């Protein structure tokens, strides 16, 4: 138990602030749609999903001289289309197709750089690896924290903030808040790790579906498309999608990224949790001919579980109650990590050890207040 306590305290002293920033940014991102509805024109417009309106909007957007590469269509909680122009460029368009705002750098939009920080640490795939690793450490904190709490469980007294700033008060608040939020923190951290560390995700999902089956189910169509035609009939293309899934929500449209590629359209069926769905359509960009489809609800079980990671992590299911739960999770992680770092580095024992240098092998018995 002493080794567990020592590792929990010392590792937390170094990475706690990082986890606090991840928790705080995650809590803010849960309410991204609310922020946009309050700050961007037309973001509060009701969603239009009829084929005629969608086709007219898509036609107007893709007909621009500097057309975006893809469109994420307006949803029930946010009435703007999100445009992707490549690199860091993006924009929002009203459902009429009119451009509302555009940016050339992620720093121009707070919700963009905040997501980039939370997921990539603003440094791309290397940052994604770091956040995933920190998530694994966070999971270890949850497990070891519950273990360390158990002997003192009769003293449980839940407080959102310490009674005072003494080390003992901070440690007690940290211990009891951590165990109270442990189930939600575990789910939040686990889903985050699975999204950022593919090797961990494959290991967890392997019992549900063989890796070879998952790989085969995600293969792109082998057919090649022709050159992109400026005369595409978007009414017919979207009508084909709607005919196949009349209750589905058309979520995104992507133009070919390179010669020979296909137009891809994502649909969210009512039973899908993922906001943009994983039901896929592919069309030839030369004539709008349907090439292939994929039903997300018919995918292997492991992939259906994987498709639930993001909506669970980002509170895209469960409505307002679950958003509040995940907000509490993020804020709790911020409090736990921030105060853990502060109490660790202001602890006289830590400062004394820094002055002495490497440990001499002697140790002091751990009192009740040392259980972090």
UniProtKB/TrEMBL annotation:
- Keyword Membrane among UniProt keywords: yes
Q: Does the keyword Ribosomal protein apply?
A: no
The segment annotated Disordered runs over 351-372
Which residues span the membrane? 7-30, 129-150, 177-200, 324-345
Q: Which InterPro entries match?
A: PepSY-ass_TM
User: Which key words are in the record?
Assistant: Membrane, Transmembrane, Transmembrane helix
| Source species, domain of life | Bacteria
Per its record, how is this protein called by name? Answer: Iron-regulated membrane protein
């Amino acid at each position: 138990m002493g080794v567990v306590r020592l590792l929990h305290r010392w590792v937390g002293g170094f990475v706690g602030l990082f986890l606090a920033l991840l928790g705080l940014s995650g809590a803010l991102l849960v309410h991204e749609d609310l922020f946009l509805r309050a700050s961007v024109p037309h973001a509060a417009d009701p969603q239009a999903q009829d084929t005629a309106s969608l086709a007219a909007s898509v036609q107007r957007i893709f007909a621009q001289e500097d057309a975006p590469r893809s469109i994420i269509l307006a949803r029930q909680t946010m009435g703007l289309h999100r445009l992707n122009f490549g690199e860091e460029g993006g924009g929002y368009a009203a459902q009429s197709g009119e451009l509302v705002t555009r940016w050339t750098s992620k720093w121009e939009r707070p919700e963009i750089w905040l997501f980039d920080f939370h997921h990539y640490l603003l440094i791309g795939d290397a940052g994604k690896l770091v956040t995933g690793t920190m998530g694994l450490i966070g999971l270890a904190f949850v497990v070891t924290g519950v273990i360390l709490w158990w002997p003192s469980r009769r003293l449980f007294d839940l407080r959102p903030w310490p009674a005072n700033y003494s080390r003992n008060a901070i440690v007690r608040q940290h211990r009891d808040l951590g165990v109270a939020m442990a189930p939600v923190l575990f789910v939040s951290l686990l889903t985050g790790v699975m999204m950022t560390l593919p090797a961990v995700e494959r290991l967890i999902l392997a019992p549900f579906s063989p890796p070879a089956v998952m790989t085969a189910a995600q293969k792109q169509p082998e057919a090649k498309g022709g050159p992109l035609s400026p005369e595409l009939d978007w009414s017919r293309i979207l009508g084909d999608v709607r005919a196949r899934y009349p209750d589905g929500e058309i979520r995104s449209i992507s133009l070919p990224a390179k010669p020979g590629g296909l137009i891809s359209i994502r649909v969210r069926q009512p039973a899908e949790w993922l906001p943009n769905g994983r039901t896929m359509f592919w069309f030839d960009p030369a004539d709008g001919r349907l090439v292939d489809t994929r039903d997300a609800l018919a995918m292997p079980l492991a992939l259906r579980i994987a498709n639930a990671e993001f909506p669970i992590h980002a509170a895209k299911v469960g409505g307002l109650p679950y958003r509040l739960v995940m907000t509490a999770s993020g804020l709790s992680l911020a409090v736990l990590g921030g105060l853990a770092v502060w109490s660790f580095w202001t602890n006289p024992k830590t400062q004394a050890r820094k002055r002495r240098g490497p440990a001499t092998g002697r140790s002091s018995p751990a009192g009740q207040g040392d259980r972090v």
